[in-house]
Every structure is written in C-alpha cells, then in structure tokens.
Amino acid sequence: MDEEVLAGGNSSMVIRVGNTVPRPAGPWTPAVHRLLTTLRAAGVTEVPEPFGMDKQGREVLSYLPGIVGNFPLPSRIGSPTILHEAGSLLRRAHDASEPLAYAAATWQLPAHEPIEVVCLNDVAPYNMVFQDGHIAGLIDVDMASPGPRIWDLAYLAYRLVPLGEYSNPDASGRDPRLGRLDALIRAYGHEFDQAAVLRAAADRMEDLAVFTDQRAADMGRIDFLEHAALYRRDRDRLLHLIASLHAP
C-alpha cells in the first residue's frame, strides 16, 4: 500500500499505511507493546493496538482516525469537556498499567521515584486524537516508563491548562488557570494539592530541558536548544505561580 505522511511528528516523520501506522522501533518497543496490550485488555481502547513488526523492522500500530491536536490548538481543545475526558482517561490508563510498574522491562526513559504506575510521559493535545469535540484516542506512548502518578498529571496540566503561557487574572483577580487545574485534578480523581502538581510540573520542565539538551547534541538539532530554553523559562513561571498561591 502507498504510504501517507501524517501531520505532526517532532523528531521523525509519521506515516500511515492503510489502517496501520509503522513507526521506528527501539529496545523499548516490546515493553511499550506490552503496555498497549495491557491497557486495551483493561478497556482503555483509546490507545493503538500493536501488530508487531514489519519487514523493515518498524513497529506497526493501528491507525486511530480523527484530528490530532497539533499547534496552533483550536479553542475547543480547552473546553471543560476535554479537561474532564483527559483527566479521566489518564487515570484509567494509570490504573490499568499498575501490574507493569515493577515488571522487568527496557524503557526508553528512566523510571522516576516513587514508582506507582507506568507513566506515559508525553500526554498532551499533540498526542491526542479528537472527534466531534471529544477525545477519541491517545497516541505516541513510546516514551513511557514507571513513575508516580503526579509526574504524568503535571505534564498534562502544563500542556492542557495550559501552564506555560501567561494568562491574565479575571475580574475577581483569580488566575483562571487555577480553576482549570482544579477541574483537571478532579477529573483524574485523586486528591492532589495544586501546589504539589505545579511543583511536579516545574520539576518536569527541568527534566525535559536536560533531556532536550541531550537530544540536541545527539541529533545535531540546534533548534532543540531553544526548546530547552523555553522549558526552563516555563519552569520559572511555574515557580512564580506556586509563590503566588501563598501570597497575601
């Protein structure tokens, strides 16, 4: 079948062949396929189904139809419905992944303590598939690795609230991002403190900056250096927001 280039793909080109998506594989691919199979068996069918490897050594996943939330993001992606569905979907994926959290496996990213679940590590609109104003799929989970629930939730908040861009407080003086953050935490269904999620998001920004610096060096992608600088600026914004929670 002919190969169709799909929109998106930050580090490599993404293609579609019929109803499948072949992607570059690595030593972590068996663990990721086991994760996808485990999630789907538990009813989390919003993730792709793994079909093994093709003759070119690529992993083969099922194609999930819909619109991927690439930039610039349409305004409806920030709707209360999407916030609720994203938090609920992440919780379902985490709960289903628990049996694999301590299983012997090779993951692309290191684990983070305390290990509670398998974190997907890149849950964001650009890895979500949307249909008719709802989340229909969650793709590109090859960065998964064991870690704490809040590690994943914090990154989802960073991307979906969002927390990386300044928002003016409303007429009451309350930052609207905090209300959206509360809604996402409630949808996840765990009593996380706002400040704890924001602190985890700040830690994630530094971790991501270090990772991106290394990728820039390994791949010769000078443009990645600006991405790393942005993550560190966003880390500082998050720390400022945490401080504002305790301001009189």
Question: Overview of this structure, please?
Answer:
This is Aminoglycoside phosphotransferase domain-containing protein. InterPro entries: Aminoglycoside_PTrfase, Kinase-like_dom_sf. The structure is a single chain. This protein is α+β, with helices and mostly antiparallel strands. Among the domains are: 60 residues; 56 residues. The strands form four sheets. A three-stranded antiparallel sheet has the order 3-5-4, with helices on one face. Strands 6-8-9 form a three-stranded antiparallel sheet, with helices on one face. Helix 2 runs parallel beside helix 4 and helix 5 runs antiparallel to helix 6. It is globular.
Please supply descriptive tags for the structure shown above.
248 residues; alpha+beta; three-stranded antiparallel beta sheet; 10 strands; globular
